[in-house]
Prior knowledge:
The complex is a heterodimer of chains A (491) and B (479). Chain A has 491 residues and is an alpha+beta fold. In chain A, 39% of the residues lie in helices and 19% in strands. Chain A folds into three domains: 4-287, no CATH class; 302-423, no CATH class; 432-488, Arc Repressor Mutant, subunit A (Orthogonal Bundle), CATH 1.10.10.410. Chain A has 16 helices and 16 strands. In chain A, the strands form four sheets. In chain A, strands 1, 5, 6, 7, 10, 11, 12, 13 and 14 form a nine-stranded mixed beta sheet that branches. The longest helix of chain A is centred in the middle third of the chain and has 20 residues, at 225-244. The relative contact order of chain A is 0.09. Chain B has 479 residues and is an alpha/beta fold. In chain B, 38% of the residues lie in helices and 13% in strands. Chain B has helices at residues 12-21, 26-39, 51-66, 109-116, 159-166, 183-189, 223-233, 276-291, 307-322, 341-352, 355-368, 374-395, 420-424, 431-436, 464-478, and strands spanning 46-49, 78-82, 120-125, 172-177, 192-195, 215-220, 262-266, 295-299, 400-404, 440-448, 451-458. An eleven-stranded mixed beta sheet of chain B has the order 1-3-2-4-6-5-10-11-9-7-8, with helices on both faces. Chain B is globular, with a radius of gyration of 21 Å. Chain B starts with 11 loop residues before the first helix and ends with a helix. The A-B interface holds A 47, 50-59, 86, 88, 90, 92, 95-98, 149, 274, 276-278, 281-284 and B 84, 86, 92, 94, 99, 102, 105-106, 108, 203-208, 210-212, 238-242, 317-318, 320-321, 323-327, 329-331, 341, 345, 365, 368-370, 373, 377.
Amino acid sequence: MIDPKTRAKYATTIGIECHVQLKTKTKLFAAVGNDAREAPPNSLVSHICFGLPGALPVLNEAAIGLAARAAFALNSRPQKFSKFDRKHYFYPDLPKGYQITQYDEPIIVGGSVEIEVDGETKRVGITRAHMEEDAGKSTHQAGQDYSLVDLNRAGTPLLEIVSEPDMHSSAEAKAYVRELYLLMRYADVSDANLYYGNMRFDVNVSVSKTETLGTRTETKNLNSFRAVEKTVDYEVDRQIELLEKGKAIAQETRGWDDAKQKTFSQRSKEDVEDYRYMPDPDLPPIIIEQSYIDRVEKEMPSMPGEWRKRLSGLGLEPAAVETLLDAEVEEGQVSYLPLIDMLLDQPEAAKQTANWQINVEVPLRREGKITSIFSDPEMLEIYKWLYRSSKERKVSSNQAKDFLVAALNEKQVPANLDDFAKQKGLVQVSDEGEIAKIVEQVIKDNAQAAEDVKSGEMKAIGFLVGQVMKASKGKANPKLAQDLIKRQLGL
Amino acid sequence: MDPGTQGQWPPIKDIAAKVQSGELKAADLVEQALEAIADNKEYDAIIATTGGRARERAKDIDARAAKGQEIGRLAGVPFIAKDNFLVYGAETTAASNILKGFNAPYQATAVNKLEAEGAICVAKANLDAFAHGSSTENSDFFTTKNPYDMARVPGGSSGGSAAAVALQMAPFATGTDTGSSIRLPAAFCGVVGFKPTYGLVSRSGVVAMASSLDVIGPLARNVEDAALVLDVIAGRDNLDSTTIEKDPRPYTDLSFDLKGVKIGILKEYMDDSIAPGIKTQLQQAIDKLRAAGANITEVSIPSMPLSLAVYYILCPAEVSSNLSRYDGQRYGYTYPEAKDLEESYSQSRGRGFGKEAKRRIMIGTYVLSSGYYDAYYKRAQTVRTKLMQEFETAFSKVDFMVGAVSPTGPFKIGEKASDPLAMYLADLFMAGANLAGIPSISIPAGINDNLPVGLQLMAPQRADRDLLALAKQAEELLA
């Protein structure tokens, strides 16, 4: 372990490259399905993916549309001119002997991502982002003298987003990768499913005691926010330890061992390959018209930053806002934010709905205790009813929660929510006559307490209200109960 | 022999009409082609015949024609595909050892289009391996002999295709032209070879040589046949993003008035390096064009002397990239004794590729290497752009250009085999059209020393139809 004093002498610099899988139906250069998750090996392969003689790549235009959206998500705009290049190296999972990528004229140049760490907002610069095709997957079986290659993934479209070295702590690195994830999800550019490797991170870390940057290492292929955070922490300490011992940092590519929670050396930069980049003569340059850019911009949905402004404008706490932002893009077809959007002209109702979502619907859905999925207008009806009913004190806060659980587990939205709530016993009784009868009985049964209240010991009224609630099985409106007790006792 | 003059095959459109009417049987035409191939075996023009599939197709076509069904504009017409075209049911080797045994699981768009009009592929023609060469001596299998003199080369790389057409094995053959490969063998074998505008014919399913230069075109006995074949194979293809739309006016419409047409003699293609006998032939041909009303002037592409240097940087660069896929891992030749991946790569490629392929891979890898890219590849691209501009300027003054195909006639087998630079010079007058992407045609312009002489005609990009029309006029004048 490095002692904090020593660590404080060093400044950390972090840059991150992120590969995002674009959610096109087919591959980047072949009319072949793109969803390799459950497909048997080498079943999503054509003559193009296989690199047969005479096979030519043909660009999937949908990828351009997604990259253009990503540009806006990254606070940039797509380049009007960009092109594809060939990057050469030999490996069995690279069928053509080169990868088609964008070398010196990528589709996105410049941009930024805003992150918040410890209450401070920070801007991380985006150097560039380029489109490229993924390679296949190699499997090296232990103890076997062969390897297996699956080309299903070969040709899957990726967007590689390269950040500036603008991050200086593991917390910032983690915040950045989470924000990238949200941006790609909100822009509907990628499924960004980390489990399936839809987003993979390469983290460059260096430490230095001076203004000059230290030698960096690149830890490749991380597939979780936590691994990014842990990698930075581990690399910072490892590098400081070496430097404190007077040793040099090797510029190298490293991997992350999740079991050991350590990075390990993969290959040194000395045997770096010469990729012999050249423009791909099979693919004409990508020319994007201004009208196309304008249309994409117009169609962009709200990004997380805008949602944060809207939600905090309602008075929600930052942590609650983030919960909702995460929940919105979790697995499944449940949406939360559109409801808030539809309620924005009624800020109080919007805030109350958000709170129910954050405190009831989101956690209970995660626990599997709420399962039904209704349309946004249906959900809006439910929350509107709940807001109105609680405002009119027809439902207590506990009843509100029970009501949501009950309603959101129905097969269909109950036709009449008033009837549904009554049927489930989830409305407060505000019928004066009925509660008056209960109050009369409670005063009779608790004569001493009633006397105490009469003699000015107002503490005891709480006890009586409690008894009324108990007798009504919680359905009585407590405010009404208190008023009636006072009235009957002549106060 | 006296090839090319005795028309054993009728014009293509007549064959198709007669097959459609039942007057000729596709089955007989296929047999006729296979017999001609067998009779001329000693010329080594053919790598393999595709008789089985050809006979089946012929049977089907005859049956359909008998029922009165419309077959197409090439009904029953046999053709020979250069062996870098992927054809179903046939090995596609590109005359290389590394692709030996590779059976095409899909088919070239050009072949699909030919078959859709009723043409029948009867054989695969020899070439310089991967189309690298000007003589077919770089074929990993054997050298094709010139039909006019068996001691001489047929030109290359489409030497097998050109010899096959000259030897009447079929009415036409397909070829590819990256730096001369259709036009030079056409000239050396006394047939017509047409290199279309870049992108006019889909490259899908044709083994790539240098993607920014490769074009596909016909070799035939006359311009009219070449135009018909072009009309069938031209046009946009969803499998090749570099393709362009075909001209709405058919390429078979060859009506043309030569009077007042401006033809520029391209100075750099009519210089003193040309053998005197050939130059005289060409000048006589040009005189005939003038006499027929053409307005003959002289034009110059000042950067032309650099074209071959540019070509031999860009072409190997793309070749080295395009040949990367032949790595012995998925198809083709694999070195069976490899102990690890590295050895499998180096031995499969080292043993599978011939000398010329390896030479071009080495040059291409060198010019693309970090630190050399700017000095070679980038600079060559700059000069290529300049050449294109100079062509444009020249074509603002003339409608067409004329010049020699090659400084010499067909050379002796082995004469240049040990001197790659001398071999590269055979393309001196040809590569400019590929670099500029313009159409260019070689038509027979007489005989010199008992060997055929070719005349090269060029036109601006997309003026393919006009060029064919001019070539038809020239062909009639020179007959």
